[in-house]
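protien #1 (seq + structre)
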Amino acid sequence: MSVSWESLSRRRGVRVTGGLVGVYVGLVAYWFVQDAAHRVAARKAEA
């Protein structure tokens, strides 16, 4: 019983950590895309 509960809590912890990492990666990717879009727009404005 204790083993199954331990694995369950561990799995839940991994799921929470994975969710936080996913949100962080999503925010970084979103910021990177926005920055790239601004750079392309600035380059087009110069040209």
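ok now protien #2
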Amino acid sequence: MADPQQEVVVTDENGITFRLPRLPEPLPELDPKGTGKLRRALQENPRVNLSKEAIEAAAGLFADPSRVARLATHQDGLDGLTPQPTGSATLLVLEGLAFADALLPVLGNPRIAHLTQAPSTPAQKAQNDSTPAAPAAAGMYAPDGTTLLAQLTIGYDSVEDARRLIRTTVTETLKQPGADYSDSILVNGVMTPVEAVLAEVTYAHGEAPVVVPALYDGTSRCTSAAKTRHAQSGLSAEDLRAKVAESFADVLSLSPRTRRTRYGKRAQDVNAALERYNLTMPALRDRMTQLVPVRLVVGAEFGPASNASALPDAIATAQSAKHISVNPWSEPAQDLMTAERIVSHLNRQGLVSGAFVGLVNEDALKDEDVELLFGTGAVDLVRYDRSSDWVEPLWRAAKITHTLTRPAVFDEAKRFVRGDRGLHIVRTDRYAGYLGVVIDMSFRFYKPKTTPVARRAWRDGGVLSKEVLGSWELVVASAAELRARALKGDADARLTLQVLAGTALIADGIVTQDSGLKVSSGRVPYRTTPPQLLEELLRAPHGMRQAEAVLKRFDPDRPGGTGNHARYTYPRVDHQGRVEDDGAGVAVLTEADLHWQADPEKSLREHAAREREKAAESRAETPEERNHRRRTYLMRTLGEAQRTLDDLHSQQAQFPHGLGAHPLGQRTDWDQVRSLIRKLDDTLIDSRPPLESAPSAGDDGEADGVL
């Protein structure tokens, strides 16, 4: 036999050569006696607080049970359990080598939690049944009903629902940039321990519950190892991901005895190849991926006031500490984890109710919970539909926004974030970003193109204007009633309308992050942040009517806005709420329109300044181009003049009882305006193009029959 320290060269199915610095060690054989020792050590250790079934699952997880049993043995007040302080609890961890296929992602993967979301409404369920999100896990009590265990419970509707979650988690994890370590694992194996907790998986449809080691950190490593193990020539990347995902799902229904027997056979094959110094690629794949180092929670020390949320909170703290500061996930994943921890903390402090936590988690809510959140008689208005158990997404967003911006809640939430993330200050726009990833849970699956844009807008303040952060009450009413009350000066109705419509406009990519590029490219007339724009918009009667139209059009189950991705658009309305016609049909609402509606004078002023800058910069402009630009400016100016005149006209009814002066001033003022209009009309008639004149290329104004 060759020297085991000699370099090993192995060629894969595609002819790619891998060089190993030395021959790998053999896989350990099954050790049933060691498993028995470990089981007894766990049962007798007073610091281990697991159920009988969880101890059985823990003992069967380790491939080196004799060594781990020594760590688990408690003698003279000492053992080898590693304490891990997490704030709400101290986790007691047992380290060893685990059978890789025994570790399951039944808790989902926070790394991708911002990507996938279970369809929560009847319409969503009808359209899609393959993108589930993990249910919320809870702590467990011992049979005495008072002692907290160091294990979780998580409920699914059925075994198939759990399998679907596992498949989706594995597939989406492997798709994430930087989450596939398969090349490194093939040569080095999994080097950094994964982390797991025992979880009892229950099923509403009556299938027998099972206790499994559930991954809460290291899902990427385990899925990458499985990808390495199952790779074969001729298999596409998509098919390989599907194969890996199915292999994880199958383990859920596999008995521990069958799983260990399967491992024993593979270990024999690998070790025989190593003995013959005939290391084939399949044998190498098995050798490097059958086992992974694991840190398993087997005990926990809780505070005296702890409840069933203590262990889930401790697990979340452990995840947060690692993946926000040390090995960071993507920003949306970090924000979602922080947001969930904010809500959990506020609930423990008694600042938000359990019903509110359910709303945030998109749990099914009973009618009494809905009325607790939104008020008596609100059920019919805020339900997605009367037959569903879910709240309509915009009303969910409004309640989340209102609750998490009440002064006492807002201050405590920011204090928690400062401590949790080590920040000196939490700006309002940063806080809004945490709200955004929670709010878009209701519709992000159906708006994939605009969701990243929307999240940037939320991180720029979202709907959190200064008034929204102040003292106001959420008004539960129809869009028409909210608009009517807002027009009469009801600030609560106006701010409710602002949050509802603002959420919709952000979700569909109409209101976007402030950027100088938007101005320089002509997309908007002036710079402003999303909350500033929305506040100005909803202070204008025109903007209130536009907000009403937005609420009537928003669809959480389809992509909307502008662009090729949109399945619906928002109509632009005039100051009386009538849908405008742009000459080619219904005018489609754009972000620029919102600026003009919010502050027409500033828009006109900034637009004119920009046009002057363009004229100065573009000396090579042709006469035709210059005329086209001037016609566009003329139309904007005339349109604003018409809107101003209509607004003045609408105030005539208030004179002389409501207004001290006529809206159009003295008769001489009126004569002067009329004279200008007549002169303008005469000039326009004198400049009328002949009928046979064809419109110039790209001349949108004349082509649409504007002039």
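Residues 116-131, 696-707 have pLDDT under 50 and may be disordered.
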